[in-house]
Amino acid sequence: MWVQRVIDFTGWEPSAHSVDWDAVERELQIPLPADYKELCEAFGGGTFCDSVSFLGNLEGPMFNLLVRWQASISVNRDSEPYPAYTPGGNGFITWASTEWADQYCWLFDAERPDEYCILARGDSDEWCRYEMSTSEFLYRVLAEKEFKPFGIAEYNLDPTFQPGRSVHRG
């Protein structure tokens, strides 16, 4: 339902991206949210409303969730009160960010792999916790003016999606 709302809001024609979720989840050692997978398969990765960068499954570093996650753990970023997720542990994985330095993440615990919440933080570095799906959070950010402090609808940006470009290595 929420994935379809994001599609309808942006007027996007789903592009049927093929993703080897088994390989992705094997590397992360945790299952990703089902609706996130739906978003990836419909959008790939790219930018919503010229402002929200959605990390999906495209080749190259710009819009690739795994590449960005690997970079975050390679620099051993420990954030208080939440560390970056490492396989078998608990912590956050970023799935989107904004041009205003907002960061949208999941908080995972390997001991409870099917339970997660959304964590978001802005320039104040204070984490806000949301008990909702990825696609619901994304829709509210994009479309609801009253979704504070992370909603962008108040800026009257065009409801668009610009796909990222895959980098093909030859």
TrEMBL record:
Domain of life the protein comes from: Bacteria
SUPFAM superfamilies (UniProt xref): SMI1/KNR4-like
InterPro entries cross-referenced by the UniProt entry: Knr4/Smi1-like_dom, Knr4/Smi1-like_sf
All copies of domain Knr4/Smi1-like, residue ranges: 15-140
Name of the protein described by the UniProt record: Knr4/Smi1-like domain-containing protein
Record organism: Streptomyces fungicidicus
